[in-house]
Write a structure and sequence with these properties.
2 domains, about 80% helix
Length: about 190
Amino acid sequence: MSRTSRCGAADGLLSPTYFAYFLIGGYLGINYVIFKSWTERNIIWILFITFISGITYVGLLIASHYSNLLFENSPWYDISVLLYSVGIGVSFLWLGHLLLNNSYAPIRWLNSISSYSFGIYLTHPFLLSSYKYFNEAPGSIWGYNLYTFIGFFIVFIGAWYLSYVFRKLISWMIMIYQKSGTQKLQS
């Protein structure tokens, strides 16, 4: 007799389901060039299958919630969740590739965030701690939401700007160092 949890996974049987995600992701990563051209040719089918599997997944979840039937451990549930998850991922990869090829201003902005992401990651804890230290959270829910919203933008834009300044400073220091090294060699 198989033991099942309410979250839908049979105890001890999670490995094959999650292993499929890693296998699919690894295969797509290794064969990305072939996969990208295949995706461009078949995007309508990918979107259709993703939509149908999403409807199936949500339908089984709702049916399981409102009846005594447990669909969450059925093969149909596992297959629909797998197809839906992979389909969403593939659709976003296709959409990202499409947006990067058409260089819109917001895409250039996102590329800038991407190029400074490590610096943002490193500097945001300092800015967040400083923001919390100098600004006390208000008691009301609306005040707290505003506090969080403003804090997010201050920390994000501040970390982005600091990363930009650090990159410029480091490139300037490297340029000065290279010039001084060249002058020493010429002497």
